[in-house]
Design a protein that fits this description.
alpha/beta; five-stranded parallel sheet; 12 helices
């Protein structure tokens, strides 16, 4: 008999960033996912950031509501280390998840191997594929909406229509002027924004898959065509009715997603990240006639005599006196 079972990790550490914004949704996205996976102990950490030197109350409420067993008022490398090494009498985290700044990302990277992590995270990034049917205002607003994450957050426009692309570039500064976060968004746009024009849809797919954006929006008259062919992205937002904000906050998909090209080989945070697939096997005496025969021969072909002898012992023990057409070492029983 062969089988497998899904077993959750014993402890998860969920980091919820502070800083410029109160990341309520990050608390929900990380803690709830671990809870649904059945993790027995969930530690959540978030820094003190408001004027009273406390975590944002709404973030603390979200962490508790989502099911955190322990909440640490702590941020940065200190929080990551405390969860990983089980400080303050807490169990050591087997899995660390959640977004954060460059220091948090580096701490998780260095700890990877000693603990599991969700993704190697970089600055938030977003791309839009738009053709002549797209509303330039929608494109511009959505690009700036994601650029407000930080001055180092890239936003990209891949378009098959030069007029649309130029229109978007012309109106972005005006829209940014009306945004409270417009200065941050414009710095991101000026330093990391890109507009790439392609004549062919196939070229747009190639470019987009090379960038492997964290978030990817489709604002074209052939969204289904693109959806069927795109393969590298963290989360896809199809049509004007779907904006990245929906996925970031409330639509149901997780917003903890791969960045810096990691979408080429990884998806975002999900229940499976907290689950281990454990395999098991139980072989009968009769099954050993076939499996020990095969195991013995493969092992000797590999030069691993010790492995082969484990199978040889069972062949001789279970089938005494039987002749084999391959080498089987007859190990005598040692008694004392």
């Amino acid at each position: 008999w062969l089988g497998q079972k899904l077993v959750p990790v014993n402890c998860a550490g969920c980091y919820i960033p502070g800083g410029r914004y109160a990341h309520i949704a990050s608390a929900i996205m990380s803690v709830t996912t671990a809870k649904v996976a059945g993790v027995p102990h969930i530690v959540a950490a978030s820094p003190a950031t408001n004027e009273n030197d406390d975590p944002f109350p709404a973030v603390v409420y979200a962490m508790d509501l989502a099911g955190a067993h322990t909440i640490l008022e702590m941020g940065g490398v200190q929080a990551i280390g405390s969860m990983a090494f089980g400080l303050f009498g807490l169990p050591k985290a087997d899995m660390l998840v959640g977004p954060g700044n460059a220091y948090v990302a580096e701490a998780k990277r260095q700890l990877f191997g000693e603990v599991g992590i969700d993704v190697f995270a970089g600055p938030t990034e977003s791309a839009i594929i738009a053709d002549s049917t797209a509303d330039p205002m929608t494109v511009a607003i959505d690009l700036l909406g994601q650029a407000e994450h930080g001055t180092n957050s890239p936003v990209w426009l891949f378009s098959s229509d030069e007029l649309l692309a130029q229109h978007v570039m012309d109106i972005i500064p005006e829209i940014a002027e009306e945004m409270p976060s417009g200065t941050v968004a414009m710095q991101a746009w000026e330093n990391h924004g890109e507009v790439i024009f392609c004549d062919r849809k196939e070229d747009i797919v190639t470019i987009s898959d090379e960038y492997a954006p964290e978030h990817l929006q489709l604002l074209t008259e052939e969204n289904g065509w693109y959806k069927d062919r795109l393969t590298n992205y963290g989360s896809l937002f199809v049509g004007e009715g779907s904006t990245v904000t929906h996925g970031d906050k409330c639509s149901g998909t997780n917003h903890i997603l791969p960045t810096k090209g990691a979408a080429r080989y990884s998806g975002g945070l999900n229940v499976q990240k907290f689950l281990k697939v454990l395999t098991w096997q139980e072989l009968s005496v009769e099954a050993n006639r076939e499996f020990s025969s095969v195991g013995s021969r493969i092992s000797r072909a590999e030069g691993m005599d010790g492995h082969a002898r484990s199978c040889d012992w069972r062949l001789n023990k279970y089938f005494p006196g039987e002749k084999w057409d391959f080498e089987v070492v007859n190990q005598e029983r040692i008694t004392k």
